[in-house]
């Protein structure tokens, strides 16, 4: 525990990252990348067929792309840094050092992207006649820069699961061009456009009253569906085949669903996308509202699930083979076991476990090693100690913690001395029975009294 | 015991090395921060000025003043988008070269730090609402429109405090143990409010010069169009609005810059004596930077006065050049200040600058291990 720890007792610390990250993925993929491609292709089709109404649709979409990406998109993007520096400082601190230059390049790409988007939006009415072609070209360049942001960040995201040779060489390029980089970039590219079609079909179906315009818009979308539905499937399988077996085994588990329900839902989801794509291609003038609603929410559910699973299957690591999910460096496990975890935790006011401070020391260990995923009284019952530890006692729990990573391979090992392990067990039993505001000083005294009596 | 806890609060640096030359990264952080803060200044100053002008336009029933306000609001929403993306590099750099201090100070105000996401999304959405409803909300709902703008501006005026607390707190590791969250930190750490006022004044000054710059260009554009034989809609009104905006820009910059002589002095006085003395003769570079920037501020005031008298290209360029030099001096001094404060701590808690390759088990070892495990299993 190198830095002070912030606790979100009900939501759980991991959930805070997940909320920001999933919103960001929806906006960055679905709006910044995908929707930009759609709006520019509507502009292209409008210019080609002299269809001013189609161009107007593109213009309206661009206003919303501007508003959404420069508010929610930008702030949840930076927000991932803000939130990880609070909840997973060791992890983000390490990633920044590995991928500094990728992020620095990303900075320049982002600035260009935003400037292009501003130019694109504010010149719809001022660039007329021959200048309309330039406007369209700005749009194409904008789409390319949107995709470049994904091209860079995907190297970082995929390396967390499959750092490849990096763990031996610590070389930037080994990490960036890791084994799952290309498949996951291809997968994300198709996802972005398909997600955009899924998100925007509903408002278009509801808000555009002119049936002809709607038909023309959906015809353009159909072109993208024909490309992205098979694209997502093929690259998805490719991506799946390229991840490590340990991670593959955790996929269904990490969704929290039984296998048959998992399979059923995914077959149904896939069928829904096929129906949607076919319907839009065959009868673009009559796409049912209910279908666009279903696709809207299914696509969000899928993307949320994908990111959740991707983050989850790395367990017990957060950066494979280097850093455990709770911020403990794999290479320092022995050091912690010998010298003690607390003694090596700058942010812990307690450095050594004594009879008087046992529960408070346990609290520091809980903050350092459990809080990244667990809570005491949080809403996710599977991760909350209040529910999980019913019926346990300190000795049994302490014994269990020592072999935890073997019985449950997705758990990081406990690091620290035996006294520290006992302290953690004592604290967890105490708070799981009495709640987070249990008096930790009193607890130790009572125990001392008990000991004396014995 | 207390003393021990205080000094031990600085963690060891991350095991992975800083991926480049620290000196070079310091140059990068100064340059990228200056770019970022320039746009932040314009965003905050313009948004507050817009609301102020809209209220003035309402009370004086002057459409032209309302136009100035509208123009300011238009630009605010564009500037803020650029300000945010420009902020990525300085945030990246401060996280990489000052990890031990910056992450600690961040986590001491963790929840306030996270609230930035919600606060800024809300403020930015409000800025768009303010701008895009300007025409629709004329007439009866004008007061509500002002309220929308004012809400956005108030959030923008609050947000810098979170950043300032963070970057001030990282300079005082010995005070971390006594820190009790964001609101407590506002009065707990020295320098906070002095920095805040120094920054807010700069925001108005920067917005002033930007307003002048923009309206000067717009005037030139009208003249160019007229020369080409085209007509300009509402020409007389537009010309008057540009003229008024230019005057507003100069006046705002002049007076807020003059006040900086007071605010800057107050900030200097808030430093620890040893650090203050570095700026007052003990360190040649810092003293030079400080004296230079005071002198340049006076020069800037002089050129602003001249520009107010005659709008010539020469006067305008003189203002811009002086302003940019002051900006660079300020950004540089700000960095040197952090270095002065952290110098001893960095010496005692060195950064990881050398790459240390991990010890890797060879293939044979792994096979051996597997055999052992299999045997264990039997």
Number of H/I helices of chain B: 14
* Oligomerization state: heterodimer
Query: Poorly predicted ranges of chain A (pLDDT <50, ≥5 residues)?
Result: none
Question: Mind telling me which CATH architecture of the largest domain in chain A this is?
Answer: Up-down Bundle
Percent of sequence in beta strands of chain B: under 5%
Question: How many helical elements of chain A?
Answer: 20
Which word captures the global form of chain B?
globular
What's the CATH C level of the largest domain in chain A? Mainly Alpha
Alpha-carbon distance between the two ends of chain A: 36 Å
Query: Biggest β-sheet of chain B: count, sense, barrel?
Result: none
List the helices and strands and how they pair.
The complex is a heterodimer of chains A (454) and B (378).
Chain A: H1 13-48, H2 52-87, H3 89-98, H4 100-122, H5 131-161, H6 166-169, H7 172-176, H8 181-207, H9 211-242, H10 245-249, H11 251-255, H12 259-282, H13 289-312, E1 317-319, E2 323-324, H14 333-339, H15 358-369, H16 385-388, H17 394-402, H18 404-407, H19 418-434, H20 440-453
Chain B: H1 2-8, H2 22-60, H3 63-86, H4 88-97, H5 99-108, H6 110-132, H7 142-169, H8 182-188, H9 192-227, H10 235-269, H11 273-282, H12 284-309, H13 313-348, H14 363-377
Helix pairs in contact in B: 2-3, 2-4, 2-7, 2-9, 2-13, 3-6, 3-10, 4-5, 6-7, 7-9, 9-10, 10-12, 11-12, 12-13
């Amino acid at each position: 525990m190198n830095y002070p720890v912030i606790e979100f007792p009900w939501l759980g610390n991991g959930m805070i990252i997940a909320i920001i990250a999933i919103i960001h993925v929806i906006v960055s993929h679905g709006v910044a990348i995908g929707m930009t491609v759609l709006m520019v292709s509507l502009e292209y089709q409008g210019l080609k067929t002299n269809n001013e109404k189609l161009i107007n649709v593109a213009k309206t979409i661009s206003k919303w792309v501007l508003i959404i990406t420069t508010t929610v998109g930008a702030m949840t993007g930076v927000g991932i840094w803000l939130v990880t520096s609070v909840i997973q400082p060791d992890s983000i601190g390490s990633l920044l050092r590995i991928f500094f230059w990728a992020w620095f390049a990303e900075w320049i790409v982002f600035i260009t992207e935003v400037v292009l988007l501003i130019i694109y939006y504010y010149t719809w009415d001022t660039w007329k006649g021959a200048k309309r072609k330039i406007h369209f070209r700005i749009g194409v360049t904008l789409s390319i820069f949107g995709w470049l942001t994904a091209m860079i960040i995907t190297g970082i995201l995929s390396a967390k699961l499959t750092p490849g040779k990096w763990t031996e060489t610590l070389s930037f390029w080994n990490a960036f061009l890791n084994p799952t980089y290309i498949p996951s970039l291809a997968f994300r590219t198709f996802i972005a456009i398909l997600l955009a079609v899924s998100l925007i079909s509903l408002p278009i179906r509801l808000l555009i009253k002119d049936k002809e315009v709607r038909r023309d818009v959906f015809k353009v979308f159909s072109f993208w569906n024909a490309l992205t539905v098979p694209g997502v499937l093929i690259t998805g399988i490719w991506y799946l085949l390229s991840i490590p077996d340990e991670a593959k085994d955790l996929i269904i588990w990490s969704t929290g669903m039984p296998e048959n329900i998992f399979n059923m839902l995914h077959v149904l989801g896939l069928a829904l996308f096929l129906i949607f794509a076919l319907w839009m291609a065959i009868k673009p003038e009559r796409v049912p509202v209910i279908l666009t609603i279903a696709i809207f929410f299914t696509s969000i559910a899928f993307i949320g699930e994908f990111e959740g699973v991707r983050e989850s299957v790395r367990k017990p690591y957060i950066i494979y083979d280097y850093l455990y999910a709770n911020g403990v460096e794999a290479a320092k496990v022995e050091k912690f076991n010998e010298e003690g975890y607390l003694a090596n935790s700058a942010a812990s006011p307690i450095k050594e476990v004594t009879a008087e401070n046992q529960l408070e020391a346990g609290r520091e260990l809980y903050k350092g090693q459990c809080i990244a995923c667990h809570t005491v009284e949080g809403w996710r019952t599977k991760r909350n100690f209040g529910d999980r530890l019913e019926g346990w006692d300190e000795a049994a729990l302490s014994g269990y913690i020592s072999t935890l990573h073997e019985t449950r391979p997705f758990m990081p090992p406990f690091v620290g001395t035996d006294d520290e392990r006992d302290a953690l067990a004592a604290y967890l039993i105490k708070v799981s029975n009495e709640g987070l505001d249990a008096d930790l000083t009193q607890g130790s005294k009572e125990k001392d009294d008990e000991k004396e009596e014995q | 015991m207390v003393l021990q806890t205080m000094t031990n609060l600085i963690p060891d640096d991350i095991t992975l090395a800083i991926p480049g030359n620290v000196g070079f990264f310091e140059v990068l952080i100064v340059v990228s921060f200056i770019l970022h803060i320039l746009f932040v200044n314009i965003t905050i100053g313009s948004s507050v000025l817009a609301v102020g002008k809209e209220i003035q336009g309402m009370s004086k029933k002057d459409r032209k003043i309302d136009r100035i306000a509208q123009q300011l609001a238009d630009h605010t929403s564009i500037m803020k988008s650029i300000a945010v993306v420009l902020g990525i590099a300085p945030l990246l750099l401060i996280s990489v070269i000052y990890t031990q201090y910056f992450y600690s100070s961040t986590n001491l105000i963790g929840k306030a730090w996270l609230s930035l996401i919600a606060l800024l999304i809300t403020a930015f959405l409000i800025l768009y609402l303010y701008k895009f409803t300007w025409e629709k909300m004329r007439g009866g709902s004008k007061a509500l429109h002002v309220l929308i703008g004012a809400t956005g501006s108030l959030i923008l005026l609050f947000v810098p405090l979170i950043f300032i607390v963070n970057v001030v707190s990282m300079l005082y590791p010995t005070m971390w143990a006594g820190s009790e969250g964001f609101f407590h930190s506002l009065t707990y750490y020295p320098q906070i409010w002095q920095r805040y006022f120094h920054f807010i004044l700069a925001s108005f000054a920067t917005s002033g010069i930007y307003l002048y710059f923009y309206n000067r260009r717009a005037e030139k554009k009208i003249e160019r169009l007229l020369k080409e034989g085209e007509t300009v809609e509402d020409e007389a009104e537009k010309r008057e609005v540009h003229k008024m905006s230019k005057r507003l820009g100069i006046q705002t910059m002049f007076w807020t810059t003059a006040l900086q002589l007071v605010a800057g002095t107050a900030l200097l006085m808030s430093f620890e004596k040893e650090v203050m003395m570095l700026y007052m003769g003990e360190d040649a570079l810092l003293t030079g930077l400080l004296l230079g920037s005071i002198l340049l501020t006076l020069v800037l005031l002089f050129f602003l006065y001249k520009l107010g008298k005659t709008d010539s290209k020469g006067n305008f360029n003189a203002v811009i050049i002086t302003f940019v030099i002051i900006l660079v001096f300020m950004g540089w001094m700000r960095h040197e200040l952090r270095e002065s404060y952290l110098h001893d701590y960095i010496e005692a808690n060195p950064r990881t600058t050398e790459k240390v390759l991990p010890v890797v088990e060879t293939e044979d070892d792994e096979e051996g291990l597997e055999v052992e495990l299999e045997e264990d299993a039997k």
